[in-house]
Fold this sequence. Notes:
Layout (H helix, E strand, L loop, with lengths): L2 H4 L3 E10 L6 E11 L4 E5 L6 H8 L7 E6 L9 H11 E4 L11 H11 L4 H14 L15 H13 L5 E5 L7 H18 L2 E5 L3 H6 L2 E6 L2 E3 L1
Helix pairs in contact: 4-5, 4-6, 5-6
This protein binds adenosine-5'-triphosphate and magnesium ion.
Adenosine-5'-triphosphate binds next to strand 2 and helix 2.
Amino acid sequence: MSVLDQEPVIKIRDLIKTYGEGTAEVQVLKGVDIDVGRHEIVALCGPSGSGKSTLLNIIGCLDKPSSGTYLLEGEDVANYDRGAQANVRLRKLGFVFQSFHLLSDQTAIENVMLPLQYAGVPVKERQGRAAEALARVELQDRMDHRPNQLSGGQKQRVAIARSLVTEPSLLLADEPTGALDSRTGKSVLQLLEQLHEERGLTVVMVTHDVEVAAWAHRRIALLDGKISA
Length: 229
Ligand SMILES: Nc1ncnc2c1ncn2[C@@H]1O[C@H](COP(=O)(O)OP(=O)(O)OP(=O)(O)O)[C@@H](O)[C@H]1O
Ligand SMILES: [Mg+2]
């Protein structure tokens, strides 16, 4: 085991996130401490409004904490500027959003190719890798469909293919099985498990589903802005 293997992928200390100002101020995260080790699969659970998406967005470098520290593989990414954060996302992170965030005027394969374009991958390689990622989520016959021509579950799988196409070391997923029937949901979990075994992918996912939570290696529960035991 190298030193890097022992260092947590995610190390969060006394993280606070406040929205709004003055009388409209709401403290959503009230001092959160989390460590996630390399190759872990962690389920983030908690009632609606408890701050799960807020926390995942901060971990995913899409938002910044109001205070506290967040180290991603030892990098103080919370204090990076927007450009540097975007770079971290391209190098290390895959993100599956609660509401997919697919571009409606682009086909499935174009959506999946997009992060590779940002990463400067040549177009031929982009096409090959995107097609492969779509095949892994069993959408090889829907590559040229636009989001409005796809079912909810198919859109979710396109979003998963897009998050994995850059081969991230950390996958963050907000309800990755939320829009799927139980069979398709299971096949998504199997895919994550395979990637975990093949490449040691670390996964943090928000879920309301007790079966999905039970499948994870470890569960972290958020309650009223804090981690509950
Ligand atoms: N941009 C924002 N401005 C103000 N308040 C916000 C903002 N985003 C989220 N909140 C508030 O923060 C709280 C936590 O929201 P968050 O989306 O993190 O919850 P969640 O645990 O993901 O819930 P769900 O399970 O319903 O997705 C909510 O009370 C919400 O109203
Ligand atoms: Mg949420």
